């Protein structure tokens, strides 16, 4: 059975853990929204308005468990569209977050390998396909992105976002 867990990015680990423990296999903590006025803020920014994209960054994912490029540098306040291509034969995903949340979530995936995610800060991309994330980085700092498919983060499938 597939678990479908929807969580707010800022509390990714907390609500996922809560969802799994408190609600069994079905949980919904963040109402899906396309309405920019109701976008939830996180420690690393918020869902971007597609009409306000000021920068496009293409990122490739491969079965070598690498993102290319592995590091991107942005200006604070920029709305970025990540165009994420899966060049491999396995499912990969790009999840934006703080390094800590990504690390904790990757750990959780070991216990719940079938867990699926669907939030504005992530894109699951089938082999040969392309996904998109539109995100506005509202704070300066060092953040990350990772593939949280089981074992991929541990194999090094992660990168960093530097926001100046
Ligand atoms: Cu992957």
Descriptors:
164 residues; alpha/beta; 5-stranded mixed β-sheet; 38% strand; disordered N terminus; binds copper (II) ion
Question: How would you characterize the overall build of this protein?
Answer:
- The protein has 164 residues and is α/β, with parallel strands linked by helices.
- Helices cover 15% and strands 38% of the residues.
- It is built from 2 helices and 13 strands; from the N terminus they run E-H-E-E-E-E-E-E-E-H-E-E-E-E-E.
- The strands form 3 sheets. The chain has a 5-stranded mixed β-sheet, with no helix packed on it. The protein has a 5-stranded mixed β-sheet with strand order 6-13-12-8-10, covered by helices on one side. It has a 3-stranded parallel β-sheet with strand order 2-1-9, with helices on one face.
- Strand 4 and strand 5 form a beta hairpin.
- Helix 1 runs parallel beside helix 2 (99-111).
- It starts with a strand and ends with a strand.
- The model is unreliable at 1-36 (pLDDT under 50).
- It binds copper (II) ion.
- Residues 92, 147, 149, 152, 157 line the site of copper (II) ion.
pLDDT under 50 segments (min length 5)?
A: 1-36
Counting helices, strands and paired strands, the structural category is: alpha/beta
Multimerization status: single chain
Strand content: 35-45%
Please give the radius of gyration in angstroms.
15 Å
Question: How many angstroms does the end-to-end distance come to?
Answer: 43 Å
Cofactors and ligands: copper (II) ion
What is the typical, i.e. mean, pLDDT?
81
Strand and helix order: EHEEEEEEEHEEEEE
Helix proportion range: 10-25%
Number of strands: 13
Number of helices: 2
Strand neighbour order, sheet with most strands? 3-11-7-4-5
Largest sheet: 5 strands, mixed
Overall outline: globular
